[in-house]
Amino acid sequence: MFDSLSEKLQEIIASAQGKSELTQENMQDALREIRRALLGADVSLNVVKSFISSIKDKAEGEKVIQSTNPSQTLIKIVNDELTALLGEKLAPLKLDTNPSIIMMLGLQGSGKTTSATKLALKLKKEGKTPLLVALDVYRPAAILQLKTLADNNKIDFFSLDNEKDVLKIAKASLDYAKEKNDTVIIFDTAGRLEIDTNMMAELMLISHSFNINEKLLVVDSMIGQASVEVAANFNEQLEIDGIILTKLDGDTKGGCALSIVHTVKKPIKLIGMGENITPLEEFHPDRMANRILGMGDIVTLVERAQKNIDAKEAKKLEERMLKNEFSFEDFLKVQKQIKALGSFGGILSMLPLGISKNDSDMITHESEKQFKKMEVFIQSMTIEERKNPNILNASRKKRIALGAGMSLNELNNFINQFETMRKMMKGLGGLKQSMKKGKMPFGMPKFPPKF
Description:
Blueprint: H1 3-17, H2 24-40, H3 45-58, H4 62-65, H5 70-85, E1 100-105, H6 112-125, E2 130-135, H7 142-152, E3 156-158, H8 166-180, E4 184-189, H9 197-209, E5 214-220, H10 226-238, E6 242-246, H11 255-264, E7 268-271, E8 281-282, H12 285-292, H13 298-308, H14 311-322, H15 328-340, H16 344-349, H17 357-379, H18 383-387, H19 394-404, H20 408-436
Helix pairs in contact: 1-2, 2-3, 3-5, 5-12, 10-11, 17-19, 19-20
């Protein structure tokens, strides 16, 4: 998300850094470009006016122009204002009762049912025992969809067959949760194609009948500024506690995220990526602001790695690398762990590389293409060949290349690169052992040195 805005703002920042000094005139030019970038990213006009006004107030006159590093000062102001616009700080879920109740709200097609399952997965990973409750008794197959998602992800599920009274279902689910020791109940409520009186009346009845810990509005970020009006209507009638933004990886503009928080004055609490059932992620305004300005987000990348990468499996792979036992089968395992962190483009956006959008897209495209080729080659091998690269002779290589539908030359290049990597890993193993003994290879002195 935010690709177009991020690209524009990074260009403006690069231009500001190229100035030997910042004057009133070129600062006004920078603010004008920032304004255009925000409008181009589908941020509402009122939000843009407020944002630019805040920057002007903080960057007024001599404060920035006469600072030691004026361009860096301006960047910091923009970063601070972006963070404030996105909600200032993390807004965690308040689940302080047992069982706690989360009410999922949203229009039909916003991704509410999928988000309910993703939220349940997140809570399950945190040690809670969630219960998904089907309260959408109108949409065809809605109950079956939620049940299927719950079963596939080993999450408790509750519904009442042939019951249309949502209050009866909700009340019965509380008894069921207490019986099963479920700690968080998630109400998947009904949505409509558009906001209507009957829908709101039912939601308000549920809201007033239970002690709801969190009323979370699910918003499809792809619908742009229309999402702001939806959020405003829901908040006016139901007083929501927070927002879940879905499909952020498909929204290159990201304007709705900036506009919703400012308009509704409620935080984005969680975000969802893609259609796959993966846990929702917490929304950190400061980290997102850093990413928009090309400063990376190493903390989120590390947290994602800790959550998605099997530490024991990673340790085994490291040991095999250092012993020069790394195989093609191991390579597939590494590739799977990399994919668990997200797309190449997403990973690059979290690294403070200082490269342009075009360069990032090119690296992403080439990396994905090369990894796909490698995967096809390996999948064309027998199990024995995958586990023991040393047995690959000329006839085996010819058969693998033919099976992969690629040239023998491409296969040889891949194998050569793989062998080079294995040698490097073996060298690192020797380096690691030397350092453990207080020695350094290549005649380098011991560390720490003794005088």
